[in-house]
Design goal:
Elements (H helix, E strand, L loop, with lengths): L3 H12 L2 H7 L4 E3 L10 E12 L5 E12 L2 H15 L10 E16 L4 E14 L1
Parallel strand pairs: 1-2
Antiparallel strand pairs: 2-3, 3-5, 4-5
């Protein structure tokens, strides 16, 4: 199953939110991995699972983890709170499909110990249900 249109819609929703841009800086939303040369904070989303119903209408239920990574857990948590404001009950514009439902399925928050510093991670898993 191809989820690329869902990913484009998710990226667009996150990258075009003015409050997120003010918290992150411009060009700080990534699919799957944050490049090594990017200064934190940054936002990354990745597909956790997806199920496709082939009945009519065709439906795709995809779960994406959307996570802020920052120098502190409090900074990551502030970004994650704005992500929740942007995505909870949001309508995404998915080419060729109708976004039926978008909702948080559970939160994540943890501190990663690096060799030279710690990194805060905060976010949630979001169900994106499309039909069409």
């Amino acid at each position: 199953m191809d989820v690329s249109e869902i990913e484009k819609a998710l990226y667009s929703k996150l990258a075009n939110d003015a409050t997120l841009t003010s918290l992150l800086g411009s060009g700080k939303v990534f699919n799957s991995i944050i490049p090594a040369d990017i200064a934190l904070p940054a936002l990354v989303f990745s597909l956790v699972s997806a199920v496709e119903d082939t009945e009519t209408p065709r439906a795709v239920r995809a779960i994406y983890q959307v996570k802020a990574v920052a120098d502190t857990l409090s900074d990551a948590s502030a970004i994650a709170a704005q992500v929740d404001t942007v995505l909870q009950d949001a309508t995404l514009t998915v080419t060729g499909m109708t976004n039926f439902y978008t909702a948080c399925q559970g939160h994540i928050r943890y501190l990663e110990q690096g060799k030279q510093q710690n990194y805060g991670h905060a976010g949630a898993d979001y169900l994106i249900w499309t039909e069409g």
